[in-house]
Design a protein that fits this description.
elongated; 10-stranded mixed beta sheet; Rossmann fold; about 30% helix; 23 strands; 9-stranded mixed beta sheet
């Protein structure tokens, strides 16, 4: 809960701008924090970023290590192309034991009392007088203490000591204690928990959560992050805006006149469109046609491609008279080929946010949600994420097109996930049989912003692009896939005139 004096609390950066956003502005200065996580979850990397940020701010940094050697820490820094100049490394573990010639106090935790270890830490802090301190790790302190009461007293003593030295402290813990033992959580000012999860297939996933942060309004829930060369990149969970802005503008053309008629005038900025239908029916081509119309208006666009290769999609669009290459070359269009096996949900949503806020994207396609679902641990999480993401995109007046493939060809067709209630507009594509041939049809099943046609029209793809015919008023049962013919309406035997 936010306290009345939060506004006057001085903050320091964690070393990650995105983590600072989650923390509501950074870490409160001169406090002790717990950074916990299993081995390999990223504690050391985040801790080094915290100290390096202090060096950039002209603050002295101290890394006290009981679990890793100085050479190991330098190897970690080297892997990220970092220099540890300006950071003092105080090593309490050394294979050679006590070395009286060394400038540092080198103690072997297994051979000394806990009190002597604490005294060595305090002496080092008094000598260096750092503004930022990392204590790695508390698991060794726990082993030296031998019982929980003594351990708690020593941690309280350290906390009290650091509070008088104007230090912001990160204490690292590898969760080797009883999971139900939350003594540290009650002592420290804040707790950041890291998780490292292996997937059945694809890359490993990392995420963090703020368990506790006194006097600070932080962003709760899990936030994905990755460790890359250069440090940790955190992806704050997108939170849907709480107010409805008056952002709806006039409808813009899809580039197909008859499709505009079906939609009641075209696409409205600040809305999303769900393209729903079986494989191969033309959902991607329709999205490309709408995107090309936006590009011709000078709107920056991005196409997230999960199902097929970028070269294949661009080549196929060109064969239908929709040449995207000039727009890609000019930078107006980004086509990003995605691999769901290597993608975390938070990473994707933050790429989208960056495209909107930094690149000025106003038209966006996700093709397809079936593949994006594979990057999620469960279907319900995709629905929740898409709710947040679509609310955000709508608030930014972005036109969003979502492609979802259905199983089956005719008759009863189903999708892996139902996002119809989140969609502002639903375009429904179907195959049907007539005259011994398979035809395609399109209809608008829903529109929240405009009065739309309820008719079903024939739909085709050809060398001139996307073609939409007249309403199929003399057919019954088209959505079932096997309609009956009760009139004289002709099907499109040739491309319609311009504008169709």
């Amino acid at each position: 809960m936010q306290e009345p004096n939060e506004a006057v609390m001085e903050r320091v950066s964690s070393g990650s701008a995105e983590l600072d956003i989650i923390l509501g502005g950074g870490l409160t200065k001169d406090r002790v924090y717990l950074l916990e996580g299993t081995p390999g979850s990223g504690k050391t990397t985040i801790a080094l970023q915290f100290l390096l940020e202090g060096v950039r701010q002209g603050e002295k940094g101290l890394y006290i290590t009981l679990s890793e050697t100085s050479s190991e820490l330098r190897e970690v820094a080297l892997s990220h192309h970092w220099s540890l100049a300006g950071i003092e490394l105080f090593e309490l573990v050394n294979e050679q034991g006590l070395d009286p010639e060394s400038e540092q106090s080198i103690l072997e935790p297994s051979e000394v009392e806990l009190g002597e270890t604490i005294e060595g830490v305090m002496a080092c802090v008094d000598r260096i007088r750092p503004r930022r301190v990392v204590f790695d790790s508390l698991s060794e302190m726990r082993l030296l203490a031998q019982n929980s009461l003594r351990y708690r007293r020593q941690i309280l003593a350290l906390k009290q000591y650091f509070s008088t030295r104007e230090c912001t402290v990160l204490m690292l813990d590898d969760r080797s204690s009883d999971p139900t033992d939350l003594q540290l959580h009650s002592i420290v000012h804040g707790v950041i928990s890291l998780e490292h999860m292996a997937q059945d297939y694809g890359c490993e996933r990392r995420r963090l959560r703020i368990i506790k942060m006194r006097g600070v309004k932080y962003r709760g829930g899990y936030h994905d992050f990755v460790i890359e060369t250069g440090g940790v990149s955190v992806f704050p969970r997108i939170v849907a805006p709480g107010d409805d802005s008056d952002f709806l503008g006039e409808a813009v053309s899809t580039g197909v006149a008859h499709l505009d008629e079906m939609l009641g005038g075209g696409l409205v900025p600040g809305t999303n469109v769900l393209l729903n239908g079986p494989s191969g029916i033309g959902k991607t081509s329709t999205a490309v046609r709408c995107g090309l119309s936006a590009l011709e208006r000078g709107v920056k666009s991005v196409y997230y491609l999960f199902d097929e290769g970028k070269a294949t999609m661009v080549s196929r669009a060109r064969s239908m008279g929709m040449d995207l290459r000039p727009h890609v070359d000019s930078g107006l269009l980004q086509v990003r080929q995605m691999d769901p096996a290597e993608l975390s949900p938070g990473q994707f949503t933050n790429w989208v946010k960056r495209a909107v806020e930094q690149d000025g994207v106003g038209f966006l396609v996700i093709d397809s949600l079936n593949a994006l679902l594979q990057a999620m641990p469960d279907e319900k999480y995709l629905v929740l994420q898409m709710h947040e993401l679509l609310s955000y995109l709508n608030s930014k007046a972005v036109i969003t097109m979502l492609v979802i493939g259905q199983h089956g060809i005719v008759g009863d067709v189903r999708a892996d996930i139902d996002l119809s209630y989140l969609s502002d507009v639903i375009l429904m594509f179907r195959y049907f049989e007539a005259r011994g041939n398979v035809f395609k049809a399109v209809s608008v099943a829903k529109s929240r912003t405009q009065a739309h046609e309820t008719s079903i029209r024939e739909f085709r793809l050809g060398p001139s692009g996307v073609l939409v015919g007249e309403p199929l008023i003399d057919f019954e049962g088209i959505l079932s896939g096997a309609p009956s013919y009760r009139g004289e309406t002709a099907l499109m035997t040739a491309p319609p005139s311009a504008g169709g």
